[in-house]
Design a protein that fits this description.
binds uridine-diphosphate-N-acetylglucosamine, UDP-n-acetylglucosamine1-carboxyvinyl-transferase, Chain, about 425 residues, EC 2.5.1.7, four-stranded mixed β-sheet, UDP-N-acetylglucosamine 1-carboxyvinyltransferase activity, cell shape, UDP_GlcNAc_COvinyl_MurA, cell wall biogenesis/degradation, alpha+beta, 15 helices
Length: about 425
């Protein structure tokens, strides 16, 4: 297993370009199955989760090539609607294939998805939404079969604005007969990106970005070329790392409008931020101030995907901060690791009380999930001494070689890979 070795204490400085959004690219790759033919998707990040999705699409019969940040995919040859169990277990986002495969083939077989262990992560809202469009669901020996001779548009209200359920329903409804009105929909920027992609293929979807999305079904969709939006969570992770190391950095190819909640928290912590169209400059000097209370909640509130990273900054701040996690029930696994690095954090149910300390100290720590792993990298960059982050494969699911991003900004870190060591010896 790869490890990241970090020598902390260098303020980050310089300029970096932010890569495309994993959480936009994954549903868009799944949605490409709604049309038959060749298309080009640009700004697709090179990540483990994208490899898994491309692996599934290949097993379904598509031809896909990822060169640089461009994926060229031909969905015309797809001939299977059975998502392979081994790949389904590797990544929760494989669930995105339900809506498109059901709409295209009239049936889909999936398994309970795997993914980061950050909570129960049910799929009931996905299934209820597809049922409302006319699908019959049957669960048998771990398999979930979903069948519909035709899908018919209807009114659907989500009990919770689930990102994935909103996307699955949008994709299935795009080829349904009649109109679907989806209320209490998730409002994340990635949902707007999916709407734009579906419309570029000839769909009729409006309202993404608000809590009501209207999808007028069309008979068929056409292949198209499309560019994925920048990754707001990668941009947020970089900003927090700069703040924690008290550095000065410019991010390019990002969208400040997608990061309003984080930028507000950083400013409350006393950090200077300048933002224009697609550039953010951050200047951090001196100890950050504590932020009294942050609550994670669906967009546009503070994102759960930046909760663990911002906790590192609060762990170094002057004063007491409270972090409340309301989206996932198991998302404080990084706390024990941060405490091992000298942080003073106590957890009570879904609240973490963070008493800032003047410094963290390097230690050997374990990434338990994707964003927790990113938080430990930030802690290592800010800490005094050497940190080793283990279980790096979690981080590789969502960051394109995170060590290179921080090396470019002067961070002293490198990857140790047993596979590479063996090659050295040979
Ligand atoms: C997406 C993001 C993930 C982010 C999350 C919340 C992608 C690929 N992943 O995940 O990075 O952390 O949004 O912003 O876009 N729930 C149910 N039943 C369901 C579906 C969800 O109870 O059928 C619950 C979940 O257990 C969780 C909450 O709803 O507690 C949020 O989940 P959801 O918004 O669906 O997140 P994902 O789409 O899995």
């Amino acid at each position: 297993m790869d490890k990241l070795v970090i020598e902390g204490g260098t303020p980050l400085s310089g300029t970096i370009r932010i890569h495309g959004a994993k959480n936009a690219a994954l549903p868009i790759l799944a949605a490409s199955m709604l049309a038959e033919g060749k298309m080009q998707l640009r700004n697709v990040p090179r990540l483990l989760d994208i490899d898994v999705m491309l692996g599934i699409l290949a097993r379904l019969g598509c031809k896909a090539v990822h060169l640089g940040d461009v994926v060229t995919i031909d969905t015309g040859s797809a001939d299977s609607s059975h998502v392979p169990e081994d790949l389904m277990k590797q990544m929760r986002s494989s669930i995105f294939l339900m809506g498109p495969l059901l709409a295209r083939f009239g049936e889909v077989c999936i398994y309970q998805p795997g993914g980061c262990a950050i909570g129960e992560r049910k799929i009931d809202l996905h299934l209820k939404g597809l049922e409302a469009l006319g699908a019959k669901i049957e669960e048998k020996d771990q398999q979930i079969w979903c069948r519909a001779s035709k899908l018919v548009g209807t009114d659907i209200h989500l009990d919770f604005p689930s990102v994935g359920a909103t996307e699955n329903i949008m994709m299935a409804a795009a080829l349904a007969e009649g109109t679907t009105i989806l209320s209490n929909a998730a409002r994340e920027p990635e949902i707007q990106d999916l709407q734009n992609f579906l419309n570029a293929m000839g769909a009729s979807v409006i309202g993404a970005g608000t809590d009501t999305i209207t999808i007028r079904g069309v008979k068929r969709l056409q292949p198209c070329d499309y560019e994925i939006i920048p990754d707001r969570i990668v941009a947020g992770t970089a900003l927090i790392a700069v703040a924690a190391t008290r550095g000065t950095v410019t991010l390019t190819h990002c969208n400040p409008a997608h990061l309003v909640a984080l930028l507000h928290v950083l400013r409350r912590a006393g950090i200077q931020i300048g933002a224009t169209n697609d550039i953010i400059t951050i200047i951090s000097s001196g100890r950050p101030k504590a932020v009294e209370r942050i609550v994670t909640s669906p967009y546009p509130s503070f994102p759960t995907d930046l909760q663990s990273q911002i906790m590192v900054l609060l762990a170094l701040a002057d004063g007491l901060s409270l972090m409340k996690e309301t989206v996932f029930e198991g998302r404080f696994k990084h706390v024990d690791e941060l405490v091992r690095m000298g942080a003073d954090i106590s957890v009570d149910l879904n609240s973490a009380y963070i008493r800032g300390v003047p410094r963290l100290y390097g230690a050997t720590v374990e990434a338990t999930d994707l964003r927790a792993g990113a938080a430990l990298v930030i802690a290592g960059l800010a800490a005094q001494g050497k940190t080793i982050v283990e279980q790096v494969h979690h981080i590789d699911r969502g960051y394109d070689r995170i060590e290179m991003m921080f090396q470019r900004l002067g961070g002293a870190m490198h990857r140790e890979s047993p596979a590479l060591k063996q090659l050295d010896l040979a």
